[in-house]
Write a structure and sequence with these properties.
about 45% strand, 7 strands
């Protein structure tokens, strides 16, 4: 088994009816299954987790954001073509910093703003629902 680290974010904005978060839709190339997930990815050489999270959010969603607070990490195991992978993902709460949307890297088929309550129901992965619950608690403090 090998280990992998990633970082990502829960990007939020104030919508017309309350807090909205950015969710990405991704299609698995092998199974054609569609998932709704938070933006995240692996660090490049020399990057901090915060830098990785901001870059990955920008690359995957086209959104510029600023980090508000750490949201901790989640861990899970998955299998790829070579072996099982022990993965740890560090997440950060991020506020939308600009309404300008830049081109994306194409990893996500689409990005949508979803009411935070609905987002918690729609996310495909339990670990990311846990992260969103942490984000909700952090937002309640502000």
């Amino acid at each position: 088994m090998r280990s992998e680290t990633s970082a990502g974010g829960v990007v939020y904005r104030q919508g017309q009816t309350g807090i909205e978060v950015a969710l990405g839709e991704q299609c698995d190339r092998l199974t054609a299954a569609h998932t709704l997930r938070l933006p995240k990815g692996r660090p490049e050489s020399g990057e901090s987790l915060e830098q990785t999270a901001l870059r990955e959010v920008a690359e995957e969603t086209g959104l510029a954001a600023r980090i508000v607070a750490p949201l901790g990490s989640v861990a899970y195991v998955y299998a790829d073509a070579r072996s099982r992978v022990d993965k740890k993902v560090h997440f950060f709460l991020m506020e939308l910093a600009s309404t300008e949307v830049k081109p994306t890297d194409g990893e996500l088929e689409r990005v949508a703003w979803v009411d935070i309550d609905e987002a918690e129901q729609r996310l495909s992965f339990d670990t990311e629902r846990q992260v969103l619950a942490r984000a909700r608690k952090e937002l309640a403090k502000q």
